[in-house]
């Protein structure tokens, strides 16, 4: 794999990976499986992480009332994407809350419902590393065998490797739990996409780059680099309104993001470089609403600097 495989971008994007691997662009359709989270149901806590909205990071999941039918959500998602230049297939993205936090029988049913859809190329399951017991891992391995022409990805919310920050944001598990989970998923040959957040309270450039270095060594296949959004109704919003937290400026975010990409292994697929905050919930940073401008500025700045993913690893 060389930079020629990146389709003109200065990093190895999900778009490039899908075109190289599946011959077309694959759009994600975000789904809500009606699950909860141990950080909300009282097992670990009731408020969730300090930045998490009441929607459990699933604010962009397809809305069809109280109907949690995966097939109907996928159909509604395809209808919403009809105006985009999509390929023939999609990624079924189990996004809201913790999507392995349920009974094996229920999880098997919803995962298989998605994988049976002819337009679905595979599923991506957002979860926590402390919510992947052996029986669920066995279920995922069995799914790979039952649907050999489709993929099964796991997305893990790490956010940071630093324990002090993790305690402050109420993540609810130590780094070693994440590391052990990644090792088990690698052994099972299940690709891992790790979520990290840029702009966490108290974190410096050095904190973030040490998180990137840890991920380079962990053997993950993908990463999401997420700007910290301040959403209404969260504890982070209270800190912001009290003046105890100041979000990143647009320029500071771009500088930190480019630093991350230049220190990131070129073999790791970049699934996201910014993210969206729901318009009705977003308090700050308001500049993040213009996602296209952020992406254009990122690509332009990297081109001017001759920057690219992995440059500072060489």
In short:
This protein is about 35% helix and about 15% strand. With about 325 residues, it is α/β, with parallel strands linked by helices. The two termini are about 15 Å apart.
> How much helix is in the residues?
25-40%
Strand content: 15-25%
General shape:
globular
Classify the oligomer: single chain
Number of helices: 10
| Overall pLDDT metric | 93
The main sheet comes to:
7 strands, parallel
N-to-C series of helices and strands:
HEHEHEHEHHEHEEHHEEH
Number of strands: 9
Q: What radius of gyration results from the CA coordinates? A: 19 Å
Low-confidence stretches: none
The largest sheet has its strands arranged as 1-2-3-4-5-6-8
Cα(first) to Cα(last) distance is 15 Å
- The structure class reads alpha/beta
Task: Give a description of the structure.
This protein has helices at residues 14-22, 70-80, 104-115, 134-146, 163-168, 175-187, 205-218, 235-241, 250-263, 291-305, and strands spanning 27-31, 90-94, 120-127, 151-159, 192-198, 222-227, 230-231, 269-272, 282-284. The protein has 314 residues and is an alpha/beta fold. It has a 7-stranded parallel β-sheet with strand order 1-2-3-4-5-6-8. Strands 7-9 form a two-stranded antiparallel sheet. It starts with 13 loop residues before the first helix and ends in a 9-residue tail after the last helix. The relative contact order is 0.13.
